[in-house]
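Reading a protein record of the kind used here takes only a little practice. The record below shows the convention in full:
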Amino acid sequence: MQRVKETLKTYFWLTLGTLLVVIGVYFFKFPNNFSTGGVTGISIILGHLLPSPVLSPGNLVLIINMALLIVGFVFVGREFGFKTVYCSMLMSLALSGLEIICPMAAPFTDQPLLELIYAILFPAVGSAILFNLKASTGGTDIVAMLIRKYTGLETGRALMVADVVIVLATALVFGIRTGLFATLGLLAKALVVDSVIESINLSKYFIIVTQKPDQLCDFVRDKLNRAATIWEGEGSYTHQKKYVLLVAMNRAQATQLRSYVKEIDPAAFILISNTSDIIGKGFRALN
């Protein structure tokens, strides 16, 4: 039962992340021709060059993603996860469905910079959720896997190469103004994705110098369901025996621990730091 709940929770977040990408792409990228890379960028360009109801940007995303999924299964193999298949298909079908249910003949506003912000924000947050769950919406990620497999080029650089080519094509097809907006979007997207991933994984770790280690450890273990490491120490000035606790937890638990330390040992010395990369039991596995 617990495994089923975890699976449902995972696919809830996968669905939410994918739909955020869809919102940003369909309502803000497509109408403004913001081709910031990826399959959606290719679809925007091809949709302009090959105007047809059948070859609309949404349908092109579906066609290209289907082709890339097949290529991924054939050439990448098991590295190509089911989560990515799910997200890729959901995104493709959602974009095609929105073209029927809610056609966009023009952008929402006449402010392209405002629209660019949302065209970056929604997909970046959605992609960050997916990347954090070791998934993606497929597309040029599959191309990057192939490039890495057969050339040894790092995935990040391979993706950047593919996206830069698409942005240059945007400038040639839609003009320098749209190309500059697409370039700005490409640069901003990477920064926002990294920031959101760090925020999602943000935790706190404490170093506490105290004379009441047992009470603190009991609280950490029984109330917060965490563990702590204890060292014996000595004050360099007073030469008084001290205990040093090291403990890591999420932000909500950190607030509780800070209040408890203040309550039972006002003289304690506390260092609290942010971290977005904790590896170990209760946090992330070492892959």
Notes: The chain has two domains: 2-200, 203-275. The beta strands are 203-210, 229-234, 241-249, 269-275. The CA atoms of residues 109 and 193 lie 25 Å apart.
